[in-house]
Design goal:
The protein is an alpha/beta fold and 381 residues long. The chain has helices at 18-29, 38-51, 62-72, 93-97, 116-128, 148-158, 209-219, 242-253, 255-273, 301-304, 308-317, 344-352, 364-379, and strands at 55-59, 80-84, 101-105, 135-139, 161-165, 173-174, 185-189, 202-206, 279-281, 288-289, 295-299, 323-324, 339-341, 353-356. Helix 1 runs antiparallel to helix 8 and helix 2 (38-51) runs parallel beside helix 8. The chain binds pyridoxal-5'-phosphate.
């Protein structure tokens, strides 16, 4: 008989507590099983307090939030939107929903986020022909902020709308402040694998009250104020339900503990693995605090004598979910015609990068299993 498979260890599974049940039960007990309701209002307010934004709209997903953000930035057919190439596809697809063209920009090594020097060169060149992009989507990858000050300066100077995709970076900080509040607006995600989850959902934040008001309207089919159903614009069905918002409220209460847990996971991995030849962890840039939503590292095959795929496959064989770093957008078949600026840094991080199980509920025993498998690949090379 073969040995039973060890229990599956996930990359970033949901970590749900009692408060979530209480808020969801309240929604049931009061029959607020609807889009909108008291949990939604409270979630928006509580979220504003946590990130230091003035206004927020709770939505059905982070992707929906970015779609609205771009539409409210006036992005439309033929416009260009700058997006880092190293990201999840949802940073780029909403621009295409609006028939705009994404322009992908490479990463910088010190944060793995969009390289402000390349952005500057691009803006400068485009300013000469009066052909600047409409917006820049600054992604804060894996729990770490991009170099926001540099991006804010460039976007102000060249009058490009800055939108922050902070879907992976709730709980992070940049010079003491939360991401999402530096640009014209910012978006967050509560998908099942993010640092907090509502089972699926997103948030659009901004200090511009009018922008959030327009987002709420577009998210509810763009109904005009009239007793009958009247529409002078086309909208979407993008609002968050009151049940879902209850889960989000409960999760938000334990955000601090969750970030402590993911940072502790990282510290343990680093302690156990940093001494191995060719292993380098994603750096934490001097400007802020990395949540380590996911612990990510690179393996240099020449130095290590093993490559990323050997380590990843050893994990898979032990029922451990480990994944390559995001495949860059400029290497995606769906974006094969898009313009790309640089790209070799992101391609290298994809080639050599690995994400390890990093959930806030990861147990010591589970983490030890991951470490043992990792070390074993190096010992048997
Ligand atoms: C998860 C994610 C999104 C999309 O969020 P959803 O809530 O899943 O729609 C957008 N951008 C990045 C960088 C993400 O990781």
């Amino acid at each position: 008989m073969s040995k039973p498979k060890p229990d599956r260890i996930y990359l970033s599974p949901p970590d749900i507590g009692e408060a979530e049940r209480r808020y969801v039960k309240e929604a049931f007990d009061t029959n607020w099983i609807a889009p909108l309701g008291p949990n939604v209002d409270a979630f928006e307010e509580e979220f504003c307090d946590v990130v230091g934004a003035k206004h927020a709209a709770a939505l059905s997903s982070g992707t929906a939030a970015l779609h609205l953000a771009l539409r409210l930035a006036g992005v439309g057919e033929g416009d260009e939107v700058v997006v880092p190439t190293l990201t999840f596809v949802a940073s780029a697809s909403p621009a295409v929903y609006l028939r705009a063209d994404p322009v992908f920009v490479d990463s910088e090594r010190r944060s793995w986020n969009i390289d402000p020097n390349l952005v500057e060169e691009f803006f400068k060149k485009r300013a000469e022909t009066n052909d600047l992009p409409k917006a820049l989507v600054a992604v804060h990858l894996y729990g770490q902020c991009a170099d926001i000050d540099a991006l804010v300066k460039l976007c102000n100077r060249y009058e490009v709308t800055l939108i922050e995709d902070a879907a992976e970076a709730l709980g992070a900080s940049y010079r003491g402040e939360s991401p999402g509040v530096f640009g014209r607006c910012g978006i967050f995600s509560f998908n099942g694998n993010k640092i907090i989850t509502s089972s699926g959902g997103g948030m659009l934040v901004s200090n511009d009250e009018q922008l959030i008001g327009q987002a709420r309207k577009l998210a509810t089919q763009a109904r005009d104020p009239a007793p009958h159903y009247q529409h002078s614009q086309l909208g979407y069905n993008y609002r968050m339900s009151n049940v879902v918002a209850g889960i989000g409220r409960g999760q938000l209460e334990s955000l601090t503990e969750k970030v402590e847990a993911t940072r502790a996971n990282f510290a343990t991995y680093r302690e156990a693995l940093a001494g191995l030849p060719g292993v380098q962890f994603m750096p934490e840039a001097e400007w802020g605090r990395h949540t380590r939503w996911l612990t990510t590292l690179t393996i240099d095959a020449d130095e290590a004598g093993v490559d990323r795929e050997q380590v990843r496959e050893a994990m898979v064989a032990q029922n451990i979910e480990a994944r390559p770093v995001w495949k860059p957008m400029h290497l995606q078949p769906v974006f094969e015609d898009a313009e790309v600026i640089g790209g070799s840094v992101a391609a290298d991080l994809f080639e050599r990068g690995l994400c390890l199980p990093s959930g806030s509920s990861l147990t010591d025993e589970q983490q030890q299993r991951v470490i043992d498998v990792f070390r074993q690949v190096f010992e048997t090379r």
